[in-house]
Amino acid sequence: MTARPAIKPIAADRLPDLLRAMPKAELHMHIEGSLEPELMFALAQRNQVPLRFANEQALRDAYVFNNLQEFLDIYHEGTMVLKTEQDFYDMACAYLARAQADRVLHAEIFFDTQTHTGHGLSAETVINGLHRACAEAPEKFGMTASLILCFLRHLSEDEAFECLEQALPLRDKIVGIGLASSEVGHPPEKFAKVYARARQLGFRLVAHAGEEAPPAYIWSALDVLRVERIDHGVQAIHDTALMQRLIHDRTPLTVCPLSNLKLCVFPTLAQHNLGRMLDAGIMATVNSDDPAYFGGYLNQNFTQTFDALGLSARHAYTLARNSFDASFIDASVRARYVDQLDEVFETFQ
Ligand code: HPA
Ligand code: ZN
């Protein structure tokens, strides 16, 4: 770890501007969850797919969820409009433009091939479209982006193996493997063998764990799947030994505050445990998860959470720095991004 700059105290009313201006990485964002109603309706028309909502506002009005499953049902419905490689490219470009506006220098983008192969698309259609947008990101959006393929945990391990197999011809277009969808009842150990195979193949490994399910899911993501990062992980706070383990190993948690609020993981943002996690020494990051559905992109997650929890400029630096340190970028690129971060904190007035 390199030295950190001295963090100057700044006026509370300047903090939102600092949060917006600071360079950052986004490590937990499902590209299908960035599909805004406007683009969804445009793709529905382009591909002749019927939608049961009269217009964009009627769709937005349906985004009220009591839990993860209620969200996943409507999220799945939205993915039906995606048919061609161009659709995946357009969706990814729309996200990258939003990320650039939020000063995201690097994004690691989740996608779930199984959702789309389940609708008759090929893995190549999905991966080639998304990858083309990522490959163009440096020139078009002044940032880097890579792809993480998530298995759907409500499906079987055999189906995850099949998904991995289909992705292998496109191996070079994917940096890592993740695990998403309905958590409770589908513990990490269900995917022990396919994660072992992905590890052998050289993929970086992450998994959603402890979003709604208990700390045991985080333990098995670490010890059975041997992941490098935990997606969400907010339930870790209920297990002291687990907290000690995460702090000791500096295991990153990709926390998604507005997602947690929308899916009722916390009743209010003021009750979110991000501040307690950071102050305990957990290597947390802030992320948007499914920004089109949860009420905001990355900077909205930062500004609303900092406001609700009364977090400081020092927390801001730690979170941005963690996002680069926890990313899967090359060390030389990371050093360049951290220099840009440090410069903002040294010069911000
Ligand atoms: N949790 C689990 N699976 C998901 C999510 C999420 O928040 N978003 C898209 N797939
Ligand atoms: Zn997620």
What does it look like?
The protein has an eight-stranded parallel β-sheet with strand order 1-2-3-4-5-6-7-8. The model has no long low-confidence stretch (mean pLDDT 97). The longest helix is centred in the middle third of the chain and has 19 residues, at 123-141. The chain has one domain (21-344): Metal-dependent hydrolases (TIM Barrel, Alpha-Beta Barrel). With 349 residues, it is an alpha/beta fold. It contains 17 helices and eight strands. 50% of the residues lie in helices and 13% in strands. It binds hypoxanthine and zinc ion. Hypoxanthine binds next to helix 4.
Helices and strands in order:
Blueprint: H1 15-21, E1 24-30, H2 37-46, H3 56-61, H4 68-78, H5 85-101, E2 104-111, H6 113-117, H7 123-141, E3 144-152, H8 157-167, E4 176-180, H9 192-200, E5 204-209, H10 215-223, E6 229-232, H11 240-249, E7 252-255, H12 257-262, H13 274-280, E8 283-286, H14 291-294, H15 298-309, H16 313-325, H17 331-347
Parallel strand pairs: 1-2, 2-3, 3-4, 4-5, 5-6, 6-7, 7-8
Helix pairs in contact: 1-15, 5-7, 8-9, 16-17
The site of zinc ion (ZN) has 6 residues, from β1.
Radius of gyration: 19 Å
Unreliable runs: none
The CATH superfamily appears as Metal-dependent hydrolases
* Sheet with the most strands: spatial strand order: 1-2-3-4-5-6-7-8
CATH class: Alpha Beta
Q: Average pLDDT, to the nearest integer?
A: 97
Named CATH topology: TIM Barrel
Strand tally, please?
8
Which term fits the overall shape?
Answer: globular
Distance between the termini: 26 Å
Share in helix = 40-55%
| Domain module tally | 1
> Proportion of β residues?
5-15%
Helix and strand string, N-terminal first?
Answer: HEHHHHEHHEHEHEHEHEHHEHHHH
Main sheet summary: 8 strands, parallel
CATH architecture tag:
Alpha-Beta Barrel
What's the tally of helices?
17
